[in-house]
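Task 17 of the worksheet. Students: predict the tertiary structure of the chain below and write it out as structure tokens. Keep your answer in the requested format; marks are given for formatting as well as content.
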Amino acid sequence: MLRRATLCLVGKARRHFHKEFSNFRWLCTAANEQNILKSDVLELDIPRTSVHEYFYERIEKFYKYTAVECSETGRKYSYEEVRCKARNLSKYLIKKLKLQKGDVVAILSPNIPEYMITCLGILEAGLVITSMNPIYTADEVYKQLVDSSAKVLITLNDGAISKTAKTAVEMTKKQLPIIVIKDKVSTQNTNLLNYMKISQIIGYLK
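Model answer:
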């Protein structure tokens, strides 16, 4: 009897929860705009534009100024260089690697000047960014590469991070191109592409 009564209470609780949850779904802002609390102050007209377009439209008069600089190495890029390198990267991803709009590009990198350029280039190409913590293990990087269906990995050709990236790509058992951020790249692995050379190829701007 006790077991039957318990099951009955559980059943009632489940039905009540389902009913309340259904009501809650219809109260969400996505279903009913009346549930959005608005200020008495006039609304701002926020333009519907992409991040890279918004950025590029506002940097023309600052072209010669420094946009980003590495505090450790002193490596820096002007706004003009950032725009040029980002655009070259975007064209390379589309024209040479044949990526399609909506494809995912993974970034495994610390906070360095090229990170900003990489993000702008990926977005300009109409691609999607999946970023990874540079202290991830190879297994964690592998899982994110698989879960995100990444088509390219951009990382550093430097020590532990490079080793982690290569191991993770090997675990996917796919020919996943790796673009490495460093001046010199070993030619032993044909999957390694030189980020610095890619971002400097002016011909891809067309």
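Marker's comment: Strands lie at 66-69, 76-78, 104-108, 128-132, 150-156, 178-181, 192-194. The first strand starts at residue 66 and ends at 69.
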